[in-house]
Write a structure and sequence with these properties.
Layout: H1 2-22, H2 29-43, H3 48-76, H4 83-114, H5 117-140
Helix pairs in contact: 2-5, 3-4
Length: 146
Amino acid sequence: MKKILLLFISLMSLTQASAQFGKMPKFDPKQFQADMEQFITTEAALSPKEAEAFFPVYREMQKKQRILFDQQRRLRHIKPTDEAGCREAIQKSDDCELQLKEIQLQYHKKFMKILPASKVYDVLRAEEKFHRQIFSMNRFGRGGRR
């Protein structure tokens, strides 16, 4: 009788845990953007005036990068069947990487016209830190690494 009761309680606990896990909120790009901008503003100690001047240019860069990220994602899901196709896929992927770096370089220069280089440096570090934290939370749950 005790075993059945223990089994029943364990099953109920697992059911409750899986129900809570299934209720994870869906990804909201606008909320993600707002959270990231708030994090960067705080970490890089941007004044409201600096943030107001910086983030429109930052969003412009992200929009251009997103196009290339989407192209790379499509390329990763295609497995060419011959040597020529593989060669072409590699070249397209390399081209995307180069274009991404060119966009970064172009916008880092724009950023330094808006903010001092030290703040741009802090912004870039804050962006990396934010993405690491988000990845860690999504991959390993809210508690971070296991």
